[in-house]
Design a protein that fits this description.
789 residues; alpha+beta; Phenylalanyl-tRNA Synthetase, Chain B, domain 1; OB fold (Dihydrolipoamide Acetyltransferase, E2P); Phenylalanyl-tRNA Synthetase, Chain B, domain 3; 6 domains; 5-stranded antiparallel beta sheet; 20 helices; elongated
Length: 789
């Protein structure tokens, strides 16, 4: 929401400067993202009046204009705008002026004709995007006056980032109420004059969907001037709020929405047929919207219809068939209140979000409709004239807001210090609430526009906001000083983080809500929990793997010229099972780019499977029992066939490691990417170090090379050796894997080094040879191994 500071001052007697006001609002929970000037500095830009237009002698598309610049000055200006005409008032940049973008204006010859300035468009002044013609000013704009003064450009805009529960602040009136409550300034809303009814024409309104439309009001205004133009002051206020000026009638409905918070719509009366009805959509109905889209409204969605059929999606967007145009001479204003849930559900189902739907989804004041009609009528009569008819109104079923019981003891307990009765009552009254004292507190009636106030804790938050979070006294919470023992056998997460950082990974935190398409791509078999009210379409399910957040982060960094990216995350993944949602803590990583940082001593080499496997093995080594884990070839839909390994803890799969599947890599725009994921439960325990006597006797090293079938994993050979060697085996290393000449196809050679040692004696050659013979025999019998010649 963008709020003009000057517009806000029309509603509340402000004494705070813009930045101080922004800070006060932010401290009260209405975060102000920025305080921005409404226009660049436009010194030497004045209101000019074109008194004469002549053809350029040597350039057919240009015109030579005589422009009045005030104080009797007449300047010759060459202009190429299509809308330049005698009598037009437009911004005139005098020699020496600097426009938006730093362009400096000087007297210069254009195709042989001297130009003493420049007539400007909105885009050239930084006042909009329209560069198609000159910015046309009001006929009563004073010639020669500085443009900044004529348009009131000495203003700033406060960009508010409102939370979804504060729909009441999506208007100048709503923010003004907050400012008045927070600062104690007097609220002075502009007075609306009720117009005298002159037209007999009325449009009957009927609410058929009574549960979804508590109130609907409308009014006919006839004989408006189709040539009327939106005045500069309104166009400027709309621009500062981020709304483009389109047509006086449309501009008025947008203005009232921004001012009061009541979305409105105007139908061309000549295009309406019969009465207007608020009803649910029926099967097979079609509607062309104002943006040109033609759709079939979902059955049960809320519509505005006349006798021919749908004319608008209620609370979302009007239809093209009854839209106002340059020829419109009579309009029917509508002002309604719709149930927030019905608008939110169908706006999201259709993928349409508008300024109107944004407000209705959060809740519109059910008592504001007629006041908004009167305000819109007053503005239309002032701008385009016309004859207003009587207000026609219908009511559906309205939800009553129940009073809330606020206990004083609970108020003091949650805020953390005694607030005091008088201060609490002042805060509630400042926010428009009626509070009646009870034995233990108050019975509070929230105002109808505050849909977010439903329970006691909501009121306590409001008292704290108005009183000031920054005024809460500092007090240290009482805490026991008893030392909390940490089991020596528990592996803490901070140790995992430290190891990952030591191996040049950077920790990231990604959303638990992810894109359903990406989730399906990476983990198609997992039941992903669906969100009932997603933030957006690409955050509609909960992640079943942390890869769905890490891989987009990997791509984001690669797209910004990062040649080497190594990311990890500690977080939770979620599974839907039997109506419940299961959570599991995991550690995951994603790697791409070079294996090592670029340097002169190493050749550039892309990271490969074994680089990442080494990182995972280092994590497993923290448990003190890495031999309990096994890497086995496996198939995973997100991983490259032949470059994927399941990680087992004894007989249980606790993670995956591998290269990203080519299909997923192509969809994500990644190449040479590797990922891993481990259940934290498998890393939770570590072997407690224990004393082992250092042997005083020499060790004996024996190397053994055996040929085994290709499908036999290396760890099977190592396990067989460990089981047979027993306590004499001090160390065991696989130091070579060979395939090639001398080895049959379908086989491989594994070379292992055995270090044998006893703590109480020196081993003899004979018993070592006998042990090796038993090892070879066991390998031959169990794995079909043969001693390599």
């Amino acid at each position: 929401m963008r709020i003009s500071y000057r517009w806000l001052r029309d509603w509340v007697a402000l004494r705070l400067e813009p930045r101080a006001l922004a800070e006060r609002l932010t401290l009260a929970g209405l975060e102000v993202d920025a305080v921005e000037p409404v226009a660049p500095a436009l010194a030497d830009v004045v209101v000019g009046r074109v008194s004469k237009v002549e053809a350029h002698p040597s350039a057919g598309r240009l015109r030579v204009c005589t422009v009045e610049a005030g104080r009797g000055r007449r300047l010759r200006v060459v202009c190429g705008a299509a809308n330049v005409a005698a009598g037009l008032k437009a911004p005139l940049a005098l020699p020496g002026a600097t426009l938006a973008g730093g362009r400096r204006i000087e007297t210069s010859a254009i195709h042989g004709v001297e130009s003493e300035g420049m007539l400007c468009s909105a885009a050239e002044l930084g006042l909009g995007d329209d560069a198609s013609g000159l910015l046309v000013l009001d006929a009563d704009a004073p010639v020669g006056a500085p443009l900044a003064r004529a348009l009131g450009l000495d203003d700033v805009v406060l960009a508010l980032d409102l939370t979804p529960n504060r729909g009441d602040c999506l208007s100048v009136a709503g923010v003004a109420r907050e400012v008045a409550a927070l600062t104690g300034a007097r609220l002075t809303p502009p007075r609306t004059r009720k117009p005298r009814v002159r037209a007999r024409r009325r449009v009957a309104v009927k609410i058929e969907a009574r549960a979804d439309c508590p109130r609907y009001a409308g009014r006919v205004v006839q004989d408006i001037d189709p040539a009327a133009r939106t005045p500069d002051w309104m166009r400027e206020r709309l621009r500062r709020a981020g709304v483009r000026s389109l047509h006086p009638v449309v501009d008025i409905t947008n203005y009232v929405m921004l001012e009061l918070g009541q979305p409105m719509h105007a139908f061309d009366l000549a295009r309406l047929r019969g009465s207007v009805r608020v009803r649910h959509a029926r099967a097979g109905e079609r509607l062309e919207l104002l943006d040109g889209r033609e759709l079939s409204p979902p059955e049960g969605s809320l519509l505005i219809a006349d006798e021919r059929g749908p004319i608008a999606l209620a609370g979302i967007m009007g239809g093209e068939e009854t839209a106002v145009s340059a020829d419109t001479r009579a309009v029917f204003f509508e002002s309604a209140c719709f149930r927030p849930e019905i608008v939110a559900r169908h706006a999201r189902a259709l993928g349409i979000q508008t300024e109107s739907s944004q407000r209705f989804e959060r809740g519109v004041d059910p008592e504001l409709q007629v006041r908004a009609l009167e305000r819109a009528t007053e503005l239309l009569l002032a701008i385009a004239g016309g004859e207003p008819g009587a207000v026609t109104e219908a009511r559906g079923r309205a939800e009553t807001v129940a009073p809330i019981h606020l206990r004083q003891a609970r108020l003091d307990a949650l805020i953390g210090y005694p607030v005091g009765c008088a201060r609490a009552e002042r805060a509630l009254a400042a926010l428009g609430m009626r509070a009646r004292r009870t034995r233990d507190g108050w019975r509070v009636q929230p105002p109808p526009y505050r849909y977010d106030l439903r329970i006691e804790a909501d009121l306590i938050e409001e008292v704290a906001r108005v009183t000031g979070y920054d005024r809460v006294p500092v007090a240290l919470p009482p805490a026991p000083t008893r030392a909390q023992p940490v089991p020596e056998g528990r592996l803490e997460q901070r140790r995992l983080r430290a190891l990952m950082a030591d191996r040049d990974y950077q920790e990231v935190v990604t959303y638990s809500f992810v894109d359903p398409e990406l989730q399906q791509l990476l983990d198609p078999g997992a039941p992903a929990p669906q969100l009932a009210n997603p933030i957006s379409a690409d955050m509609a399910v909960m992640r079943t793997t942390l890869w769905s957040g890490l891989l987009p982060a990997l791509r984001y960094n690669r797209n910004r010229q990062q040649a080497r990216v190594r990311l990890f995350e500690l977080g939770r993944r979620f599974r839907a099972a039997d109506g419940a949602i299961l959570e599991e803590a995991v550690l995951a990583g994603a790697v791409t780019g070079l294996a090592d940082p670029e340097q002169w001593g190493l050749e550039k080499r892309p990271v490969d499977f074994y680089d990442v496997k080494g990182d995972v093995e280092a994590l497993l080594g923290l448990t003190g029992a890495p031999e309990r884990f096994r890497f086995t070839a496996g198939d995973h839909p997100a991983l490259h066939p032949g470059q994927a390994a399941a990680i087992h803890l004894e007989d249980r799969c606790v993670g995956w490691l591998g290269a990203l599947h080519p299909g997923a890599a192509a969809r994500l725009g990644l190449d040479n990417a590797f990922v891993f994921e481990l259940a934290l439960e498998a890393l939770a325990a570590r072997r407690v170090p224990a004393h082992v006597e250092v042997s005083r006797f020499p060790a004996i090293r024996r190397d053994l090379s055996v040929v085994v079938p290709e499908e036999v994993p290396a760890h099977s050979v190592l396990d067989a050796v460990r089981n047979l060697a027993g306590s004499l085996l001090a160390d065991l290393q696989l130091f070579d894997v060979y395939r090639g000449e001398g080895i049959d196809s379908g086989s491989k050679s594994l070379s292992v080094g055995l270090t044998l040692q006893d703590s109480s004696r020196t081993l003899k050659e004979a018993e070592v040879d006998a042990l090796l013979a038993r090892v070879i025999a066991s390998l031959r019998a169990e794995l079909g191994a043969e001693l390599r010649q």
